[in-house]
From TrEMBL:
Subcellular location: Membrane
Protein's name in the database: Peptidoglycan D,D-transpeptidase FtsI
Claim: Membrane is one of the keywords in the record: yes
EC numbers for this chain: 3.4.16.4
Cited SUPFAM superfamilies: beta-lactamase/transpeptidase-like (SSF56601), Penicillin binding protein dimerisation domain (SSF56519), Penicillin-binding protein 2x (pbp-2x), c-terminal domain (SSF54184)
InterPro entries linked: Beta-lactam/transpept (IPR050515), Beta-lactam/transpept-like (IPR012338), PASTA_dom (IPR005543), PBP_dimer (IPR005311), PBP_dimer_sf (IPR036138), PCN-bd_Tpept (IPR001460)
Entries under Pfam families matching the protein: PASTA, PBP_dimer, Transpeptidase
Keyword Protease: yes
Record-level GO BP terms: cell wall organization
Length: 660
């Protein structure tokens, strides 16, 4: 072997050794680096990865529903879509803002400002519709997301709107029952882990899941009956508009249970928003307005005087022929020139002079004490945010004139619900029992334990006197009379005080009714503020009370047969039917009644009330198509006698007609 060949072989070996050494060093460095990353930096890097790819997010459960006593929804939570962004993850804020502005309809400068922010979360738009949400998702902009959130819906619009109140954008109760029961209704916060990719897109939830059902708020069940609430609102709106009044209230109470069945304020207020430009429409007048009750105070006065044995029903008082110069301080007047009349006629004909003289005989301390016992000057204890306590000065500040005027309802301020509470004492045979507005959760009655204020005989005596107000000749409440049924009541026509002092030419017309008059089962209070031109409670408020009572009794199936016969002679009785009764019968908003539908042939529905016809169809699972307007069925297709299978071939159509 030549010397040259030997040198070449030696260089090849050197090159092989060098290459092997380089590879060895490379792999050794990789192992050292891997060991450093795994052992030395491993915990820190794992924590960084966890922060980048796993995020702990917080969500809130659905707000609890509010339902009436029969389970009908009054307020519910519905799911909306909201668009939000993490500005730190948005790579090109200007382009993103331009694209989003076209979809969301928001000003470009506002979106640009939000996307250039330094925070990690910002809302771009809230409660968008499904179409807009889908368009935002299609843009696929990193850092911009669409998330569900809950908002409040009131399916019956203005029904009991002031009582229910409303919630804000963050689903927090701001007024009414929504505010009072915020802790009970509000959904609980729930935390869950989300895994995301490098673009921040959500991949899946961890094994903990998203158990939002346990985070939902609790349901509130009211004592309100939606159908009676509808009757009260309908009659109240009619009374206010026909008499050109400014506002009105109506409350219906079941006497034995003290449960409030209707709580109506007018003008109406729709918590969904958009229908009431006047913010005063949301005022819960029943609990917040402090008013002088006027002559509706007289039954309370007479009950107190009877309890103290100061008077008897036949006790006579000189009513000064309608005008009494009270110690040369003021003149007290009656609407008629009554002479000497008995106590029962003082109530029946509503004599201010007679009431003032009874009050003077009773005395300031005793009258003030009974006012306190029936609940004047203190909140009722109902779950009503901001409830007024009324205005009743201490007895030490009463003059003789104050005593006289308070006896017929001037110089003292009460809320309508306080007045209802006071009359409930008389209706409940003298026992003061706290009114109830909520069935579940149960109310704490320790605020007002049941106490006896008047003896049963005293309460029944006043009930009989109130019966004469409606049933006796020349009674001031005869317009509340229902043929075949004895009602009791008391009218009130309170002259309103001026802001600068004294009394003006504006009045508050009110009427409290008992159904029936003795041992009443229901109580109805109606007030109309500033009616014109007639301002008497017996003319303005009593007819509304009558309408509420008649329709409610018919709906409840409590009309005596004699009343039904009387109504039959006059024509169809006011039926508890409205357009939404179809939805009620079919279970859209009201649970349907269980009605057995026998036979394979379509029955004859012509002439039936709409509600009854809808119930029959609901029994077959049929949703009818309605045409026209009215409350009874005028025509139907398929025709009577057709096989039910015909409904599968064409829709069941009902043409409505007005009741004859």
């Amino acid at each position: 072997m030549s010397r040259g060949q030997k040198q070449i072989r030696d260089y090849s070996r050197i090159r092989l050794i060098v290459v092997c050494g380089v590879f060895f060093l490379f792999w050794a460095s990789l192992w050292v680096r891997a060991a450093h990353l795994q052992i030395v930096q491993g915990p820190r890097l794992a924590e960084q990865a966890l922060r980048q790819h796993l995020a702990l997010e917080t969500d809130r459960g659905r707000r609890g529903a509010i339902v009436d006593r029969n389970g009908q929804l009054l307020a519910k939570s519905v799911e909306f879509a909201s668009v939000y962004a993490n500005p730190k993850d948005v790579k090109n804020p200007d382009e993103a803002a331009q694209a989003l502005s076209k979809v969301l309809g928001e000003p470009l400068k506002d979106l640009t400002r939000k996307l250039h922010g330094r925070g990690s979360f910002v809302y771009l738009d809230r409660r968008v519709n499904d179409r807009v949400a889908a368009q935002v998702r299609a843009l696929n902009i990193p850092g911009v997301h669409v998330a569900p959130e809950f908002g409040r819906s009131y399916p019956n619009k203005q029904m009991a709107g002031q009582l229910l109140g409303f919630v804000g954008y963050d689903d927090q109760g701001l007024e009414g029952l929504e505010k009072h029961f915020e802790a009970y209704l509000a959904g609980k916060k729930a935390k869950y882990v989300v895994q995301r990719d490098a673009s921040g897109r959500r991949l899946y939830l961890d094994a903990q899941g998203r158990e939002m059902a346990n985070a939902d708020g609790a349901e509130i069940r009211l004592t309100i009956d939606s159908q009676i609430q509808f009757f009260a609102e309908e009659a109240l709106a009619k009374a206010v508009t026909e008499n050109r009044g400014k506002a009105g209230i109506c409350i219906v109470v079941h006497v034995k249970s003290a449960e409030i069945l209707a709580w109506a304020n007018y003008p109406f207020f729709n918590p969904n928003g958009g229908d009431n430009p006047d913010p005063k429409a949301g005022r819960n007048r029943l609990a917040l307005d402090v008013l002088e009750p006027g002559s509706t105070m007289k039954p309370i006065l007479i009950a107190a005087a009877l309890q103290e044995k100061v008077i008897r029903p036949e006790t006579q008082y000189n009513c000064e022929k309608g005008q009494w110069n009270f110690y040369n301080i003021a003149t007290i007047r009656d609407t008629h020139p009554y002479d000497v009349i008995s106590v029962d006629k003082i109530l029946r004909w509503s004599s201010n002079i007679g009431a003032a003289k009874i009050g003077l005989d009773l005395g300031a301390h005793k009258l003030h004490a009974y006012f306190d016992r029936v609940g004047f000057g203190q909140p009722t204890g109902l779950p009503l945010p901001g409830e007024a306590k009324g205005l009743m000065r201490p007895v030490s500040a009463w003059s003789k004139l104050d005593l006289a005027t308070c006896s017929f309802g001037q110089g003292i301020g009460v809320t309508p619900v306080q007045l209802a509470q006071a009359f409930h004492v008389i209706a409940n045979n003298g026992v003061k029992k706290p009114l109830r507005l909520v069935m579940d959760p149960p109310q704490d009655s320790s605020f007002w334990p049941e106490t006896r204020v008047f003896d049963p005989q005293v309460a029944k005596t006043v009930q009989l006197m109130m019966r004469d107000v409606v049933e006796a000749e020349k009674g001031t409440g005869v317009k509340a009379h229902i043929d075949g049924l004895e009602l009791g009541g008391k009218t009130g026509t309170a002259q309103k005080a001026r802001a600068r002092g004294g009394y003006g030419d504006k009045y508050l017309a009110n009427f409290v009714g008992f159904v029936p008059a003795v041992d009443p089962e229901y109580m109805v209070l109606v007030m109309v503020d500033e009616p014109e031109p007639n301002h008497y409670g017996g003319v303005v408020a009593a007819p509304a009370m009558r309408e509420v009572a008649l329709k409610s009794l018919s709906y409840l199936g409590r009309l005596p047969e004699s009343v039904k016969m009387q109504q039959a002679d006059k024509g169809p009785a006011p039926a508890p039917v409205r357009a939404s009764d179809v939805a009620e019968a079919l279970g859209v908003a009201f649970p349907p009644m269980n009605i057995a539908v026998d036979g394979a042939e379509v029955p004859n529905l012509v002439g039936m009330p709409l509600r009854k016809a809808a119930e029959i169809l609901a029994g077959k699972g049929v949703v009818p198509t309605l045409k026209g307007s009215g409350l009874v069925v005028g025509k139907q297709n398929p025709a009577p006698g057709a096989h039910w299978d015909a409904v599968n071939k064409e829709p069941f159509t009902i043409w409505l007609a007005k009741a004859s």
